[in-house]
Write a structure and sequence with these properties.
The chain is α/β, with parallel strands linked by helices. Helix content is about 35%, strand content about 25%. The chain is built from 21 helices and 29 strands. The strands form seven sheets. Strands 3-2-1-4-9-10 form a six-stranded mixed sheet, with helices on both faces. The longest helix is centred in the N-terminal third of the chain and has 31 residues.
């Protein structure tokens, strides 16, 4: 009797974006690229992420008629961390700087990133060889009782902690023992030098912990409820997979997770090795380059929301441009341009779908007014995050937050002064409040090119926006349709600009944004001027995102090459999440504090050797063991490990002089699946 062949394992991919949560069910069977068995979308529910996740995944399971027990691996990507940094959101955290001076805050954008969050300076730190200064944590100890009431976590950065993490470990242990709150130490995230930028990276990581923790908890809870007993993986910003537990501790590594997954998905769907990939979502457009089938990585670290981090990620440029971008007018111009982003608004069509007459009645009231108001078409609503995340509000912020409820309220009724508008913006940046308003998604609903939300609310918003006045006192558009066409045209034009800007930047050209704007402007202008300018990409564009077929229809003529939109472009991120590999690394440095003494700094240990060869061998052994352990923690039992060493030496009077060695181990393998 012939045994039945074992069914191919099924893989579930999830992508939690700013607007939608996508799910895809994929099987390795069905050809070299496998097969998408089912795909679905549901609205991302920020107040309770499990609702959106269950909506998308349940729809996929029903569509495929699949037993949940057949799923052997679940992998997810997310743009939540990226969006939070672009929009300036995140929990309030305390930064602990050991061995640094207050002047160091002015470097690498650290002061701007810190904002009004508290910072504590403590004496201590180490020198370049790992020798310690005297540590004094008494100031931190006395500040902890007050800090634990007003922050959601701590970030600790010590001077030269990458050469000796002892003082960071002491501070971390003290904070955990006294407060029980999450603590991120800088040496856990990066082995690179550059204290202020490492502190910036650590600060952002601490802000994101509660957000990613809620996402992982929501996903794990949903999987348990559906009896899906499969490992849960998360896509990192370099496209690699790591376990959910790994991502919980290092959420900063999930910035650009969604875009990185989309690159993996784009390559998988099209088979194109060289392309510019542009992924348009609700909040952002993410543009990157595929070379020889792999995404280019940024050697300097990912830049998101204007901050250069130390996170190794795809060389992705993230722009605040998407279907849900805020639509505004250029100030003071006779013929004002349409401006989009970078802030995301809740589209009026979506607010109308969720809250019905509470939204449309306010818009109708504003339309009945004889003159347009500056707050027309804007409403505020609570995001529904846990109350503990509202810790540390000022008196004005707390008062306004109390007035805002779970039902959208028109800003012209809610706000009574310009100062309150600034207060509202601070609540938005903390992730406590959403503002609803007119967006490109609404424009698409007005023109019948999108039909999944409330078109009537979208049209009311377009009418209100169309009757704004230009510098001559005239309405800026004759009808809702006219202003909606202008908005969608502006989105396509700006999409071309960000794609060309990325290409110029990858080529190392200065002024990339200015040149891209000028070229696209000449391309769409009926009277382009005396100088004829044109540009063409050397590779096609792969357009990703549910709205890519709409917004990228006229893109090819603006970028001078083809624009491909794959069949499953709407779930590229979710698909990319399940076809990737686990990849982690570990680093060690060998220095020579004095002649004949070789110091190995690896992981959380510092050891001395009297022989260079012995020190290098120890460093290689250390990084191999650390990488193997991290690979197991990250979710693979079959990691292959490669080790590379880089030496800095000099020659003095014909003699080789050792300066430093950098040893790196990279472990990679397919994620483990349920048996």
């Amino acid at each position: 009797m012939t045994a039945k062949p074992k069914p191919s394992p099924l893989f579930l991919g999830i992508d939690t974006g700013g607007t939608y949560t996508d799910a895809v069910l994929w099987s390795e069977a069905g050809g070299p690229s496998g097969k998408v068995l089912a795909k679905a979308k549901a609205l991302t529910t920020r107040h309770d992420l499990a609702v959106g996740i269950s909506g998308a995944v349940d729809a996929v399971l029903e569509m495929a008629g699949t037993d949940p027990a057949a799923i052997k691996l679940v992998s997810m990507s997310t743009t939540l961390a990226t969006n939070a940094l672009v929009e300036g959101q995140g929990g309030r955290v305390a930064l602990v700087m050991i061995g640094f001076a207050e002047g160091d805050l002015a470097r690498d954008g650290l002061k701007a990133a810190l904002g009004t969050d508290p910072v504590v300076f403590c004496p201590g730190g180490h020198d370049v060889h790992g020798n310690a200064a005297k540590l004094d944590l008494s100031g931190l100890e006395s500040a902890l009782p007050e800090l634990e009431k007003s922050v959601s976590g701590f970030a600790v950065c010590a001077y030269f902690a990458t050469r000796n993490p002892a003082h960071e470990l002491s501070a971390r242990n003290l904070i955990r023992d006294r407060t029980g709150l999450p603590v991120t130490a800088s040496h856990e995230l990066s082995a690179k030098l550059g204290g202020p930028r490492r502190a910036l990276t650590t600060l952002l990581n601490a802000r994101l912990i509660s957000m990613i923790d809620r996402l992982v908890a929501a996903t794990e809870g949903f999987l348990a409820a559906r009896n899906i007993a499969a490992p849960l993986m998360v896509v990192r910003g370099d496209g690699a997979l790591v376990s959910a537990a790994f991502a919980r501790q290092r959420p900063i590594e999930t910035i650009l997770s969604g875009p990185a997954a989309s690159l993996v998905g784009a390559r998988h769907m099209t088979g194109i090795d060289d392309a510019v990939v542009s992924d348009i979502g609700g909040t952002t457009t993410d543009v990157a380059v595929l070379d020889k089938g792999r995404p280019r990585l940024d050697p300097e670290g990912a830049t998101v929301g204007g901050f250069r981090t130390m996170v190794e990620a795809v060389a992705m440029r993230t722009f605040g441009l998407g279907g849900d971008s805020e639509v505004a007018l250029e100030d003071g111009a006779l013929n004002p341009r349409i401006l989009l982003g970078p802030r995301r608004l809740v589209p009026l069509a979506l607010a109308g779908l969720m809250h019905g007459e509470a939204v449309t009645s306010e818009l109708e009231r504003q339309l009945r007014a004889p003159n347009p108001g500056r707050m027309d078409g804007r409403l505020a609503v609570r995001t529904g995050v846990p109350e503990r995340l509202a810790a540390g509000l000022t008196g004005a912020e707390a008062k306004l937050y109390e007035l805002i409820g779970a039902v959208p309220q028109a800003l012209d009724r809610l706000l009574t002064s310009n100062a309150q508008n600034a207060t509202l913006n601070r609540l938005v940046s903390r992730g406590l409040v959403h503002v609803a308003g007119f967006t490109p998604s609404d424009a698409a609903h007005v023109l019948g090119r999108q039909a999944n939300w409330d078109a009537a609310a979208a049209r009311l918003g377009a009418e209100l926006f169309a009757r704004r006045r230009d510098g001559r006192g005239q309405f800026i558009a004759a009808s809702p349709e006219a202003i909606s066409e202008r908005v969608l045209t502006a989105l396509t034009r700006l999409s071309a600009e960000v794609i060309l800007e990325t290409a110029f930047a990858e080529d190392g050209l200065d002024g990339a944004a200015t040149v891209a704007h000028a070229l696209v402007q000449r391309a769409v202008d009926a009277h382009p001027g005396i100088a004829r300018l044109s540009v063409a990409l050397d590779r096609p564009v792969i357009g990703l995102g549910a709205s890519a077929p709409l917004h990228y229809a006229g893109l090819a003529e603006l970028v001078g090459n083809d624009c491909m939109v794959p069949e499953d472009t709407d779930v590229a991120n979710a698909l990319g999440a399940v076809v990737g590999q686990v990849r982690v690394s570990a680093e060690a440095r060998v220095s020579q504090p004095k002649e004949g003494l070789f110091r190995v700094a690896s992981g959380e240990s510092v050891r001395d050797f009297n022989d260079e060869a012995a020190a290098i061998a120890a460093a290689e052994k250390d990084v191999r063991a650390i990488a193997a352990g991290r690979a197991k923690d990250a979710g693979t039992d079959s990691a292959e490990i490669e080790i590379a060493s880089e030496f800095r030496v000099s020659t003095v009077e014909g003699q080789r002089m050792f300066i430093e060695a950098h040893v790196v181990a990279v472990a990679s393998g397919r994620p483990r699946i349920a048996v």
